[in-house]
Amino acid sequence: MLVKKMSDMGVRSEHAYTAAVASIGLSFLSWVTSRKKEDASLARADRWGIFVGQWAPTFFGLGLALKGYEDGKR
User: Fold this and answer.
1) pLDDT per position as a tens digit, 9-65
2) Which keywords appear in this protein's UniProt record, sorted alphabetically (predicted)?
3) Which residues contact 7 (CB under 8 A, 6 or more apart)?
4) Exposure pattern of 31-50 as b/e (b: 16+ CB <10 Å)?
5) Radius of gyration of the chain (CA)
């Protein structure tokens, strides 16, 4: 239902795939920034990178679901 609504609103699978790739880069950037700028442990930087890194599979999954609607399979 949510994916159909997104598709009806004009969100395309390419948008989700782009967001997934961008989140991978953002994950690395947040890890590096947290490691260099914060006065905290390496574990905290790792947690920031992992947190943002978990967005990528979500966006890839949305991209696949949207692709199904674009192909008319659903």
Assistant:
1) 999 999 999 999 999 998 888 888 877 776 667 777 777 778 888 889 999 999 999
2) Membrane, Transmembrane, Transmembrane helix
3) 66, 69, 70
4) beebbeeeeeeeeebeebbe
5) 16
